[in-house]
Amino acid sequence: MTYTYKCSDCQFVTERIQPMADPLPDTVKCQKCGKDSEIVVSAPALSSAGLSNSPIDAVVGRDAEARWADIKHRQKIRNKIRQQSGEQGVRMTGRNEFAPIKGGRLLTVNAPNTGLKDE
Predict the structure, then answer these.
(1) CB-based burial, 53-64: b 16+ in 10 Å, e otherwise
(2) Is residue 116 assigned to a domain?
(3) Least packed by Cβ within 10 Å: which of 61, 71, 72, 75?
């Protein structure tokens, strides 16, 4: 399991990989300043396999323009289905074909502060 620790002094973020069976330390030493870092509680990693809410296609190469056009076309179709049905969730039923998911909701997950200066 991967655990994330954040230094309370310099805000440096460290990831620690260890078995779930091992006891979890309350603090670890910061690799940057040497002071104590505390564990950061965050949302678990989720797989987006089978979901079609975002364009996660790889768009690289000579046909990138055509691929982006296809992605934008699918987004328009999904948004039209959402608007017509009033449902947030949609599922792919075929090539560029989508159907609403009754009661399906799009959820927003906030990423933890990584300690980068841009945030």
Answers:
(1) eeeeeeeeeeee
(2) no
(3) 61
